[in-house]
Request: fold
Amino acid sequence: MSAKEISETCDISISTVYRRTERLIECGLLAERRVAQPDGTHYSLYEAQLDELTVRLTDDGFEITVSEKATGDLADRFTDMWEGL
Reply:
């Protein structure tokens, strides 16, 4: 989704969207992809990196497990996989 779409869907200001998306990107829970327009301008699309979040209650408190999902296009994911070998 774009920042504008997030703002409208969540009924929050665009500045709040940018603050929160920045924090989520820093935490690795959100990916940003820049899209070029024919007129030379660009905008960002945001995609969740989170595939699954599990909270397990224990005797000592809780444990959180985060499963990420692959984002980006297939060529970028293949390159990332190849470089990781």
User: Anything to note?
Assistant: The radius of gyration is 16 Å. The beta strands are 30-36, 42-48, 50-58, 61-68. Residues 5 and 11 are 10 Å apart (CA to CA). The first helix runs from residue 3 to 10.
